[in-house]
Design brief:
The structure holds 2 protein chains of 2 kinds. Chain A is α+β, with helices and mostly antiparallel strands. Chain A has one domain. Chain A is about 20% helix and about 20% strand. By secondary structure, chain B is of the alpha+beta class. In chain B, about 20% of the residues lie in helices and about 25% in strands. Chain B has 7 helices and 17 strands. In chain B, the strands form 5 sheets. In chain B, strands 5-8-9-10-11-12-13-14-15 form a 9-stranded mixed barrel. In chain B, strands 1-2 form a two-stranded antiparallel ribbon. Chain B has a two-stranded antiparallel sheet with strand order 3-4. Classes of the chains: A alpha+beta, B alpha+beta. At the A-B interface, helix 1, strand 3, strand 4, strand 5 and helix 7 of A face helix 1, strand 2, strand 3, strand 8 and strand 9 of B.
Chain lengths: ~400, ~325
Amino acid sequence: MSEEGQMRVRTLTVVGVGLVVAIGLVWGTQVGLIGQTAGTQAGASLRTPWGEPDLQGIWTEEFDTPLERPDGLGNREFYTDEEYAEADNERARLLAEQSGSSGDRRSAPGSQNDVAGAYSNAHLSFKHLGRRTSLIVDPPNGRMPALTPEAQALATAEDEWRRELLRSTETCELELPACSGQEYDPVPSPRRSESAPRYNTGRMNRHDDPEDGAFGDRCLLGSIAPSETAFGGNFRRIIQTPGGITMYYDQGQGQGFQRNIVMDGSPHLPEKIRQWWGDSRGHWEGDTLVIDVTNFTPKQNFRGSRENLHLVERWTRTGPDTLEYEVTIEDPTVWVQPWTVKQELGRQSDQENRIYYEPRCHEGNYGFPALLKGARLAEEEYEAGVGPHPATFDNATGSGIQRFPGSR
Amino acid sequence: MHNRIRGLFKGSTLGVVLAASAISAVISMSMTRMTGQVTRPATVDGQPNLSGIWQANNEANWDLEAHAARAGSVMQEGIYPYPYARVPAAPVVALGAAAGVPGSLGVVQGDGEIPYTTEAAAIKQENGEHWIDRDPELKCYLPGIPRAMYMPYPFKITQSTNKIHMSYAFANAARTIHLDDVARPPDYTYMGHSVGRWEGDTLVVAVDYFNGKNWFDRAGNFHSEALRLEERFTLVTPDRIQYDVTIEDANVFTRPWRISMPLYRRVEPNIQLLEYRCTEFAEEFMYGMLRKEPLVTRWEGETMIVDVTRKVPEGDALYDWYRK
């Protein structure tokens, strides 16, 4: 054979071998011989069998960290060992002092304030302080940036509205802290028949309609954007598949929700499609999952931010039991600059499976219609001349003052 | 040297190209499946890959059993006493033909009838008549399994190695199918506790720990907390799962029975799950009568005026629900 012919044979042989190898690779993968690494069950590998960073598991914050940095720590992200020991001990002492009621009210058992305490310590979880001085890492001083003038005006309007609804209550007559400095006026406010300044999401002292209810009472809570250790905890279960990720959240009292992260590189939903949990679109940057979230509905409310909320999250597996979560939060109509939160999450036991049995707040919500019914009864009794004007009831702040229909 | 290399390429370029395209064709046909912009491997960890967005396309959510079309989803007696001459009732009159019930061949296997005990059959009959008061779907309650699988909303399967997630658009419902060992739930549940295993190419899921508060459909077919399911998912083609469920509940049925239906992949290239957070949608239905100024007392249409005052039957008020 000529030299050229020999070369041709050799090339075709190489190609032919390559073909066989390629077919072998395909067959091997099909039957699962290739690409088998230890999965999340063993906990040994930090990559999925298809080669992505493995973020799977049940994750939660194992330590308490305030949103904003306490005074006197400047730009320091972490406590020194000494500072940490002192701060953690002091906090433990304060928590231990509060027996029988929630919040920071100290109340004698059986007192009016004690009766208003809705949850005993059996319902709350107490965690050690974290090493981080604050969840906020940017701005560097660990504090939230200022509100824009328009956001400040809206916040003031909402605050005024809520205080107007309290002005005739005993809470204000007695100048209790829950009255927030509103001046007492026995004449019920004429503003009681107005609509709330914006779509209402918080608690207010009126129950004319279901929309007057706080989201917690309507079972419409559940937030991607983080808060301080949420009442009832914040657990996330992450599951991955090639080209897809879902996260199930278990928050608060049966207020969990699902997130399905779109990973195909396509653009966000059209402007006009607005959702409670926005539109999550993710991609990998090295070993970090970056998720961009937009398209929030104006009904959702994250610290005053409504439809213009924009989140950029960064999820990174940092060890067998640790995951770093970072989110940059921006809304140019609310904050003068974006701000960033960073958290370390701890992996929980798959076998114990303590997450997201189901978010059944709504299915058990007999309290909410009771709030509406109670308001209608108070109005009936006032009309019949046997009860005080409904505006004198404080059904919003839990200040501890209680009235019963027919009493004075 | 140069001549040799040139010679290397000259004669066998075609061969190289042919071989390369053969290789890539083999790889792309067996390993991946292009659906729009998503590249989805045919297997995950050696098992058939069920991931993607799916939806049933039948009338099972109306009624699992075979039935003819009906004039209204809520009906009242018309001018004739015959059941086939009933007419739509006030709650749905305004929706006209959009509120009828489509006919169906049914999804119940065997003789097509659900084997109720005598007492349970009477309850089912009552349920059907009290549909709008008793059906958890109208309140946007978690729909349970198997109902969530065939409601007219898409759902997403995310298949990993030891867990499979099913995210349902309706009511933000979801379930985790555990392929590994987990502790039992602390309480009975709406969506059940799902434990799965692979039998060859079929995903078999055992579901129990139900709280018995759900229905199978809008016709009043129901179960108790003793419900146990065995589901079987088989990928028949890349875009179709055959979904088969064996249902047993000794409190309600005389024997186990089966439903079976195809589930179809939503193949639109830009498909993604959108929210159907109906908690607030149901508020007017559940609490509207408690408004200070009710929004609905009287509806006046072009040709009719309907007073939508209706007395809720004894035992079906919202508060009775919680005591069940």
